Structure formats: C-alpha cells, structure tokens
Amino acid sequence: MSCIFCDIAAGRVEGRIVYEDEMCIAFADINPVAPVHLLLIPRQHMDNILLAAEKFPEILAHIAQTAPRLAEQFDLADDGFRIVVNTRDNGGQTVNHLHWHIIGGRFMKWPPG
Q1: Catalytic position from the list 37, 97, 99, 101
Q2: Strands of the chain, DSSP E
Q3: What is the end-to-end Cα distance of the chain in Å, rounded?
Q4: pLDDT in tens, 9-37
Q5: Is 99 among the residues known to form the active site?
Q6: Alpha-carbon torsion 3, 17, 42, 105, what sign?
C-alpha cells in the first residue's frame, strides 16, 4: 500500500520540509488554508489517532511537544493558531496517515465546518 506521507518522510517524494527529527517530520501543506499551514506527521505509518494513542503514546507525546515549537518558529504563538487532527471519513481525513495541521497567520473562525 502506497502512502504519500510515508514517501515524503522517506525522501521519495519532494515536500517543503520545515522540521524533522527521528520521530516526526513537518512540511508545508500543498493546499494551505492560511498563511502558515504545516503538516506534522509521525515517521512511522499509522492510519489515524485511534490506534496510535494505544500503541504509540511516546510518539504522540513527542509530537505534542514539537507542535508548539513549530508555532514559535513560525511566529504563531503570540497571536494564536489552530491544531487539527482529522480522523476517518466523517472527520475529513483525506490521507490515511496520522497528521496534525498547524494553521495560523490569520484569524480562525468558529465553528470550522
């Protein structure tokens, strides 16, 4: 089974990488909805957050620590930003590899959709 996010993490597909370490990688979304729109993904493939919470808590903790650092790096922390994790079809997940959208640089309306 082919996964575009696994291919980006492995360097087989080009992405505008903004951060990477041994557990995760962040890159610019190709269809941004705000001036800053990053995708933060675990390097290890996992379809969504449902099983990840049970099987990979250390990776989730690491990502939870990395997301605020990215917000600081992209000057989002002072004005605010949004983190979104879509899960399965009704949740709006279009790529079946767990990922966090880090979105900012403009006012976010509520409800989102």
Answers
A1: 99
A2: 17-20, 24-28, 36-42, 81-84, 100-104
A3: 30
A4: 999 999 999 999 999 999 999 999 999 99
A5: yes
A6: negative
pLDDT at 112 over 80: no
- pTM, two decimals, is 0.94
User: Can you point out the beta strands (E) in 59-109?
Assistant: 81-84, 100-104
What's the CA gap between 44 and 81, in Å, rounded? 26
Cα separation, 87 vs 72, in Å, equals 26
For the domain 4-104, what is the CATH code? Answer: 3.30.428.10
Q: Name every residue whose Cβ is closer than 8 Å to that of residue 8 and which is 6 or more positions away in sequence.
A: 14, 15, 17, 25, 27, 41
CB 56 within 8 A of CB 46: yes
Q: Within 13 Å of residue 99, how many CA atoms lie on the same side as its CB?
A: 25
